[in-house]
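Figure 2 data, in text form.
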Amino acid sequence: MSKYFSKLDPNHKLFKNLVDRNPIWWQNLVNDKDIYIEVRKDNYLDVYYNGGRLLNLSFTNKFKGQIHFEYIPLRSQNDYLPLDITWDIISLNNDLIKILEFQDFSENELRIIKKRISKFYPPSSEKGIQASFVLKNDQFLDTEFQHASGIRFDLIWADVDTKTLFAVELKTIGDQRLYISDKSKQSTNYNKIDLQLEKYSDFIKDHQNVLLSHYQRVFQVKKKLGILPSGLKCLDALDYFTFEEKPILLIGDCAQEWINQQRERLNNALKDIAYGCFYQGKSTRQFYIPEKTKPNKYIFKQPFE
């Protein structure tokens, strides 16, 4: 585990060249309020819009980038393109299609790419909801943490008041792992939410110090690049922070009727495993961690536990 995350180097050439050269395309990405940028352990950056990875950026002897082919917009003068059809084959005249020229990620270019990504990750999708939480709150330090063991944290919240890092698991009400019956427990695909969060908790307990060290370096890189969320810019470092052992379950598209029906069952299933369960509506994106239970924010871990 320690070796797995020791690769992240705040002085890596990618980060140094972005600061020293500050290319215009980088400025356009950083200044776009719909975009957020994450630091990865292998010294590259992931640029996200609506939860879709708009750009993977690395550096060896030069900047290198990747974008998924499905996110690349095509341009044509006509909505419908003619096909050449013979008895044996159907073909398309490629001269009638042009690929968007990225140039410097100008506002117009990004707008077209965003529109394309939204077809795969609309605002109502789990990824879209994840993005809205990141952009509408100011202390989410990271998204999509992944480890070779299969552990993946959707969100990492850096709580300035308590100097604590929290792993947050985001779900939507359509996720079947929230609805487990005795019959489903017999399935080979049995993977309910309490087992998932228990795995996360065990992982954090086993690797607390290494996780904290990793995120201290993530913080350093983000501060150097000027991409820290606004609520963390007041900090010079993550000194004296700890990593909370128990994760938080966040369900991001609830109606109050659904909460009333499901919260007792979920709270009882997770009260010994999770730090808390947060139920938030489709338009409610304000995130904070109260000291004790408040409406639709249930805190299970007692102070000084």
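Caption note: The chain has a mean pLDDT of 90.
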